[in-house]
Amino acid sequence: GRMSQQTDPGLKALNQGILIEVQGRQFYLKAMDRTQDKNGKRLFRSLAKDEALHLQILRTEYQAVSRGHKWLTLEQAKASRPEELSLFPGKEGELAALIKEDTTDLQALELAMDFETRGYKMYAKAAEGADPVSQKVYKFLAQEENRHFLLLQKTHQYLSSSGMWLYDDMARPMLDGG
Q: Which of 138, 15, 80 is nearest to 4 (CA)?
């Protein structure tokens, strides 16, 4: 018979990924509301938008795998619209709850950097044992988390040294030869 959702390692990793992206998106939306700076708002909005795309990819794959189908290619997953499903009642807001009234912009960036690092490690590990199709998806997501991390780090360095937010056309992907 088919493996139960709990024991299928593919679903477990997808589940973790979905939770990471849901939390990230909510965190960035909350950070966007909190910061007074318009470049800060633009950065957080752009990151939230990225997380929404990652979520779409993961949910699409989750639906396919949980129904006993094969993984879709990264291109197929990016192009498809999964059904809305909430897999994590109550857990979604945990990360966003870390942003308090007195959280500074720098602290918000630090929380985000930690979070992207966790996501990167999770996806990199999931890619290790994966078949070529799912590996490509996980590697894409790992690269995205890494890109976010570098963006946040650069912004944090600039903000802490100059007191100003950096806006460097952040919506476009940073090409770092990877």
A: 15
Find out whether 71 and 80 touch, Cβ atoms under 8 Å.
no
What is the C-alpha R_g of the chain?
17
Q: What is the pLDDT of residues 107-166, one digit of tens each?
A: 999 999 999 999 999 999 999 989 999 999 999 999 999 999 999 999 999 999 999 997
Torsion of CA 153, 49, 33, 161, to 10 degrees: 20
Its pTM stands at: 0.85
User: Structure tokens of 113?
Assistant: 């950097």
Cβ–Cβ under 8 Å, residues 14 and 87 = no
CA angle 170, 168, 25 (to 5 degrees): 25
